[in-house]
Specification:
single chain, about 200 residues, mainly alpha, Arc Repressor Mutant, subunit A
């Protein structure tokens, strides 16, 4: 069933506010963005803004991530030997969105421009984090041979995996290069970041 005029207008209004918030953050920095500035740029009232968003952060960084099953399956199969890397890639690709979507591309670039955002946003978004834990736990249930903690329940391993992936993502973003909103990540960045985390986590007497 096609969208009606009212639904199209609502979608356009939300999109205009998201674009304004992301553009301000991209051009001037996340901490310079205010609700009033977004409303002024999008030509809406504060009441309209809060009819669509629960917070300024939601307008800048988007709603809780919805993990596409085809995307997650592809990444998990490609990186089944390292679910920490897979988890990090799932989040990155989910945030990045479509290649022709300027808003999601710039949103992704914000994490490169402002180191530390990956960790801040990941831990602030309980729904996104728990959603990813469920994705990893379900995958481990159907692929038990890839479990690193076979004696532990799948949810616990998934939770620990996602926690490590947040740290990994934050470190990898520091190696990224961004030009006009387009972010380039070298595979070596994941290798180096993974080695650093492993070295820190390693037990020594």
């Amino acid at each position: 069933m096609s969208e009606g005029l009212r639904e199209l207008k609502m979608r356009a209004t939300r999109r205009a506010m998201e674009a304004a918030a992301v553009d301000l953050a991209y051009n001037e920095g996340v901490r310079t963005v205010t609700v009033d500035r977004v409303c002024s740029s999008a030509m809406v009232s504060r009441s309209t803004f809060f009819n669509y968003f629960t917070s300024l952060e939601e307008a800048i960084f988007g709603s809780a991530l919805d993990y596409d099953p085809i995307l997650t399956a592809r990444i998990l199969e490609s990186h089944s030997n390292d679910l920490v890397v897979a988890s990090s890639l799932i989040v990155m690709e989910s945030v990045r969105g479509a290649a022709d979507d300027v808003v999601t591309q710039r949103r992704f670039a914000l994490f490169v421009r402002e180191p530390g955002l990956t960790t801040d946003v990941s831990w602030a978004s309980h729904e996104s984090r728990e959603g990813l834990v469920s994705v990893i736990a379900e995958w481990l249930e159907t692929h038990p041979d890839h479990a690193r903690l076979p004696q532990v329940d799948r949810h616990t391993e998934a939770r620990l995996t996602v926690a490590l992936s947040i740290a990994l993502g934050d470190e990898v973003q520091r190696f990224a290069r961004e030009v006009d909103g387009e972010v380039t990540l070298s595979p070596d960045a994941f290798r180096v970041a993974r080695q650093r985390i492993a070295a820190i986590a390693a037990h020594t007497d």
